[in-house]
Amino acid sequence: MTSLDDLPIRDDLRGREPYGAPQLEVPVALNTNENPYPPSERLVKALGEAVADVAGSLNRYPDRDAVALREDLAAFLNEDTPGAGLTSRQVWAANGSNEIIQQILQAFGGPGRAAMGFEPSYSMHPIITRVSGTRWIDAHRDEDFGLEPARAVAAIEEHRPDVVFLTSPNNPTGTALPLESIEAVLAAAPGMVVVDEAYAEFRRAGTPSALTLLPGNPRLIVTRTMSKAFAMAGTRLGYLAADPAVVDALLLVRLPYHLSAVTQAVARTALAHGAELLGTVDRLRRERDDLVGWLRGEGFTVADSDANFVLFGRFPDRGRIWRGLLDRGVLIREVGPPEWLRVSVGTAEEMAAFRTAMKESV
Ligand SMILES: *Cc1c(COP(=O)(O)O)cnc(C)c1O
């Protein structure tokens, strides 16, 4: 049998493991930060109609530049962050924000270049960075998972990275960054600064979005996704807001017709039902705050969360707890610093199942 090692694969890919959050069939899946509420019957019907509408012209390539979808996304962001004043020229979309990140690295990273992040953070940032031939530098977060501006600036000045990744709210810790940290990084960074806001819609009241920093900062990119709060992980739609020149740069590296007509139609329909889809966000935030309170009440250490998941610990043998929960039908994520576990916020029933399983497992 041929193995990977027998193939003339790139040397820098040898020995690598593929990305792998376990995809297991379990009654209670709290491991990938999805929104637990499926689309309503009304939305399912609208999605079916939208797909039927494009089905008759699937012999043709889709709109390569996804202009109508980008207009809808700009309108959504302007509602999310009043004063953002974005136009469709400042918005770009792709198959998940992972593809957005890949395009950013293809345009601004590459061999001989470096990207910096602050771990623990989103595991795909270093993975996509390395696959693009870019060197990865981990300047790590502070002990409390925050990012002290002076230390971040010192790391940037030392390494002069071409791309800096900031994740806010951060995955897997849930930590939102104050704008001062982002502004300090922007002022120091010689290259692009990407603020990954996959969980922005879950942030607590009064936590600003980096979208407010876009005017006058042409090297800032804010990425968002429809996979989390928008409850559309299966659609694969991620997007960014940035200076129009950044979009021009990404046009150089994107594959032609990368976003299928079906994806564009489904995403636009979901955006048209945005109020309904995002209607679950407040419920999930309350559930999150209750979860943080409960875990602390049980004596666990819990990181503050502005997202739809909670990082908690500390367990000298976290694998035992993870397995104990799984044995009871509850799948969470063994991720982040050793001794910590991450649980996504689900429905009230799912959280009750989690609490019961936790009590039995510890
Ligand atoms: C889940 C997640 C994404 C989303 O990726 P998609 O490709 O849009 O599904 C991006 N960034 C972070 C930090 C995430 O946790």
TrEMBL record:
SUPFAM superfamilies, alphabetized: PLP-dependent transferases
Domain Aminotransferase class I/classII large per the UniProt entry, residue ranges: 28-354
Location of N6-(pyridoxal phosphate)lysine modifications: K228
Record has Ribosomal protein as a keyword: no
Catalytic reaction annotation: L-histidinol phosphate + 2-oxoglutarate = 3-(imidazol-4-yl)-2-oxopropyl phosphate + L-glutamate
E.C. number(s) listed in UniProt: 2.6.1.9
This protein's pathway: Amino-acid biosynthesis; L-histidine biosynthesis; L-histidine from 5-phospho-alpha-D-ribose 1-diphosphate: step 7/9
Entry keyword set: Amino-acid biosynthesis, Aminotransferase, Histidine biosynthesis, Pyridoxal phosphate, Transferase
Cofactor(s) the protein requires to work: pyridoxal 5'-phosphate
Bias (Basic and acidic residues): 7-17
Presence of keyword Amino-acid biosynthesis: yes
Chain intervals for the UniProt region annotation (Disordered): 1-20
InterPro entries given in the database record: Aminotrans_II_pyridoxalP_BS (IPR001917), Aminotransferase_I/II_large (IPR004839), HisP_aminotrans (IPR005861), PyrdxlP-dep_Trfase (IPR015424), PyrdxlP-dep_Trfase_major (IPR015421), PyrdxlP-dep_Trfase_small (IPR015422)
Quaternary structure and interacting proteins, as annotated: Homodimer.
Family: Belongs to the class-II pyridoxal-phosphate-dependent aminotransferase family. Histidinol-phosphate aminotransferase subfamily.
UniProt protein name: Histidinol-phosphate aminotransferase
Organism: Actinomadura vinacea
Recorded name of the encoding gene: hisC
